[in-house]
Design brief:
mainly alpha, Growth Hormone, Chain: A, globular
Length: 472
């Protein structure tokens, strides 16, 4: 009871710290489901776009970068993949503060439009043999538009779901955001694998690779439609009611970054630990398996099966984090990265369907601990008035420095050392980073978001919460 009273005082900062029932946010399950569906689908669209590029990196390298050296072409393609991540922090700095001022919904609709348009454009760019140097230039520009728009996507999506979800089930509902990530990657992998199996190598290189990019247009329209039908998040509406917009407009990059420096450092460290393995498994692994001599189709199908298993587990992991806390779940993932990465990659190096699949599954089972808890953990690090901007900035700085560069860095390390186990050592390093970050973070499960009133699923829960103040 004492904890509740402290939370009420911190949230409202009134002379009378006691809450009335009207102060508590009641969000019915039907509303939460609509918000989660629209947001997760948009996230699936985002990661479908990135997944398609990652799975087609070798073909894109041959199409847009002239060289007789396959390794150089692949590295050029992966460098273009990484280029999108260089502008993500800029996108976060642009869209994040806007989301805190004008609302989460409007910015999420805008990022959806930009993302799907840029992906469609990649499928329409002529090859290097047709327009020369303009081909790679246009490719890089489209990737940078993707990166810029994505800078406002994850922070806004995670914020939106976290602010809609009841406090006791934020982990469960937040896990659907990463469920959308896996759907996007899975659809991308299945489509690329199907095209690779159905078309000849020449047809795939000539025009087949463009199909997955062209599919982005109708997917983007569906996601945009669903997002435009949503109401603004309850926490943002409460914030609008509590003070004039002029006060929120005064919030600056300094407030979002330096004003939240401890939370920002934790965010950057957690995202780094998570995204290195995330991009290692979902983006770089097809290229890695191909270079090891494992069949391209077999490698993609193994990854697809692992992702399907993770999709079956992720919501249970989110629900578990609501019961036992975010920290134990995230710590399990971090220790898994550190301890299991080397055995996993040793299995993958052996080749053969069973060994490769087992190695991928080991990495996936460690990763699912992060997938199930991250979307509820990160928004809880920041107060409502700067949540979108702070999370977007911290998340995208970390992804740009560590996540999106993972395929390029690991490929370069293997090239420089000749050691095929460099991906394992790189994963272990960031597993250690995760262990330190999780140990330093506060537990946020089943607690109100900082700067927001308590959120419950029913009026009865709200009445019980008010009553608990009177008897305490």
């Amino acid at each position: 009871m004492a904890r509740h009273r402290a939370l009420f005082r911190a949230i409202h900062r009134r002379k009378n710290p006691r809450l009335r029932q009207t102060d508590i946010t009641v969000t019915e399950e039907a509303q939460v489901k609509r918000a989660v569906k629209a947001t997760a689908l948009g996230n699936a669209m985002e990661w479908y776009d990135f997944g398609v590029y990652a799975y087609l990196a070798v073909i894109i390298g041959k199409e847009f970068f002239p060289s007789g050296n396959d390794t150089a072409q692949t590295l050029s393609s992966l460098a273009t993949f990484a280029a999108a991540f260089l502008v993500r922090p800029i996108g976060g700095m642009f869209f994040g503060p806007l989301g805190d001022r004008v609302g989460r919904k409007k910015i999420l609709a805008l990022t959806m439009i930009m993302m799907s348009t840029a992906t469609l454009a990649i499928g329409l760019i002529p090859s290097y043999t047709s327009i020369g140097v303009w081909a790679p230039i246009l490719l890089v520009l489209c990737r940078m538009v993707q990166g810029f728009s994505t800078g406002g996507e994850y922070g806004g999506a995670a914020t939106f779901i976290a602010e809609y979800a009841p406090d006791k089930r934020r982990g469960f509902w937040g896990s659907f955001l990463e469920f959308g990530t896996l759907i996007g990657y899975t659809v991308a992998a299945v489509l690329v694998t199907s095209l690779t199996a159905a078309l000849s190598d020449d047809a795939m290189q000539s025009w087949g690779w463009r199909i997955p990019f062209l599919v982005a247009a109708p997917l983007g329209l569906i996601g945009l439609y669903l997002r435009m039908k949503l109401d603004e998040s309850p926490a943002f509406q409460k914030m609008e009611e509590s003070g004039p917009a002029a006060e929120r407009d005064k919030k600056s990059f300094k407030d979002s970054f330096f004003g939240q420096w401890r939370a920002m450092l934790l965010c950057i460290a957690l995202v780094a630990a998570f995204n290195v393995t995330d991009y290692m498994l979902l983006s770089y692994m097809p290229t890695y398996l191909t270079q090891l001599g494992f069949g391209e189709t077999g490698g993609l199908m193994s990854i697809v099966v692992v992702m399907l298993i993770l999709m079956a587990l992720i919501n249970s992991v989110g629900r578990l984090s609501d019961r036992i806390g975010r920290k134990p779940v995230l710590m399990a993932g971090s220790v898994g990265f550190f301890v299991l990465a080397l055995p996993a990659f040793l299995l993958i190096k052996q080749g053969g369907t069973v060994a490769v699949f087992t190695g991928l599954l080991i990495l996936g089972l460690a990763l699912v601990c992060y997938l199930g808890a991250m979307s509820s953990s990160l928004p809880a690090l920041f107060p409502t008035d700067v949540r979108y901007s702070s999370l977007s900035i911290g998340f995208n700085i970390s992804v740009s420095l560590f996540g999106g560069t993972t395929p390029l860095v690991v490929a370069a390390l293997i090239g420089a050392t000749g050691n095929d186990l460099m991906p394992a050592f790189y994963t272990m390093l960031f597993g250690l980073v995760g262990i330190i970050a999780v140990a330093a973070m506060k537990e946020t499960a089943r607690k109100p978001l900082e700067g927001s009133p308590p959120s419950v699923a029913t009026d009865e829960e709200a009445r019980e919460l008010v009553e608990s103040q009177r008897v305490s």
